[in-house]
Amino acid sequence: VRSIAFSKDGQYVVAGGNFDQMVLCNVDTGQEVRRFNVTGYTFVEQVGLSPDGTLLAALDTHKAVRVWDMGTGLERRPLVAEGNWVTTFVFSADGHEMVCGHDTGDVSFWDLRNGKSIRTFSCITAVPKGASPGLSRLALSANGKIAATINHEGTVCLWDVATGKLRIILQTGGMISSRPAEALAFSPDDMTLAVGITAEEIKLWDVATGRRIQASQQPAMGPCFAAISPDGNLLATACGKEQVQLWDARTGRQIGALDLPHCSWVTFTPDGTALAAAGPADKVSLWNLATGKQVAAIPRAEFATFPSDHRFLVTSVMGVRVFETASGKMLWSDPSKMKTQPVAISKDGKSVAWGFITPVSRPVVTVRETATGREIGRIPCPDPCWAVAFCPDGRTLVVAGSNYVLLWDLSLGQVGPTTRARAG
User: Fold this and answer.
1) Do the beta carbons of residue 86 and residue 65 sit within 8 Å?
2) pLDDT tens digits along 243-285
3) H/E/C letters for each residue in 227-281?
4) How far apart are CA 8 and CA 13, in angstroms?
């Protein structure tokens, strides 16, 4: 996926990318609503929805903007400027016009009711001699009076839409980044312009004066693993730095931190009072959230989870191990020493099951008692197992591989009648 866009009311999202269709989905349900065919093009570079939700627009690899009617799914006349490729676009606030940025540095306005060009102005005057004039991003103020552009050289400019005259060149201190900025947006009151410089930085400017607004910024987080507490009030993030950050999920404010460098994942106990986190060499540590202190350290693991009563911590990497949460003492371990998939625990926490992704002559899923490690049963599989899950009733285990799904009745010790084997 190269681009996504939400409808103004937040009910729908559309995605386009390296495939010949765009998909519209309902945000609340996740269900697909409609597909729009873009056959004949390598990929879709940008998608957008009109403010009233009646039109879908996409920038294709031929550098033309194509428009679809959301109600019927039918494509309208594309917006094509011969010899002047479109590089970015945005809908006007009323949804009646489309504003396009071009590789020549032009900004063009189109009437979406008839697909005709209304007017065009050039941004070349703001480009240094010998520099590329192409526009990478543009934004339109809510009142439609000001257009903001950024070219491939990183120059940000504000333009008067009615006259096409340059208002201000924003002083960015040279080229913004080694690649075009990823975002450009006006505040709802049109008084502030935000420019996404890189993944780590957003700069703000006063639209009227062109002066930089000094805004406090959090350090870049980078790729993170995150977990939310069972009550939904606390967010924990592990971003590979010196600490695990704790946040108020309602306000977004950081409220604490745990001293654990290079953490790769985190998970809460079911009651939300403790946290398990993986540090260097995947060493797992248990933390009391009330005191912020580490209470136990556990050897290497790639995955960990707690049963509902949080008395145990179950980890897996080369085999499965079960630890007592309070003391960190290992209670039992699987002696197979083979690569395991994330384990599954029954709803009552009494049983644990796992399979092996390592190719073996006779792939099986093992089921054991969580507290004692006593083997309850073994389920033969056609191929290596990639996923296991207990049904809520605790009596049925779902086992899946690359081309099969098995439903195993734990009380009878056999595959149930709804088994779907060798499913492609």
Assistant:
1) yes
2) 788 888 777 788 988 887 777 677 787 678 888 776 665 567 7
3) EECCCCCEEEEECCCCEEEEEECCCCCEEEEEECCCCCEEEECCCCCEEEEECHH
4) 10
Q: Which residues 6+ apart lie within 8 Å of 221 measured at CB?
A: 237, 239
Q: What confidence tens digit (pLDDT) does each residue in 115-167 have? A: 888 888 888 766 666 667 778 888 899 898 999 988 777 778 899 988 888 89
Nearest alpha-carbon partner for 287 in 302, 303, 272, 308: 272
- Which CB contacts under 8 angstroms, 24+ apart, belong to 113-120? 115/67, 115/76, 115/77, 115/78, 115/79, 117/79, 117/81, 119/164
* Burial label, 168 (beta-carbon count in 10 A; 0-12, 13-18, 19+): buried
Instruction: Please provide residue 281's backbone torsions phi and psi, each rounded to the nearest 5 degrees.
Output: 60, 25
Is the pLDDT higher at 3 or at 96?
96
- State the pLDDT at residue 114: 87
pLDDT band at 421 (very low <50, low <70, confident <90, very high): very low
Please name the residues in contact with 122: beta carbons below 8 A apart, sequence gap of 6 or more.
Answer: 104, 105, 106, 107, 164
The residues near 177 (Cβ < 8 Å, ≥ 6 apart) are 154, 197, 198
Give the model's pLDDT for residue 91.
92
Position with higher pLDDT, 43 vs 368: 368
Contacts of residue 62, Cβ cutoff 8 Å, sequence gap at least 6: 41
Contact between residue 117 and residue 102 where contact means Cβ atoms under 8 Å apart: no
C-alpha span between 170 and 146 (Å, rounded): 14
Residue 174 pLDDT greater than 50, yes or no: no
Which residues, including other chains, have CB under 8 Å from residue 279's CB and lie 6 or more apart?
Answer: 260, 261, 262, 263, 264, 285
- CA pair distance 258, 237, nearest whole angstrom: 10
What six digits make up the tokens of 213?
């607004």
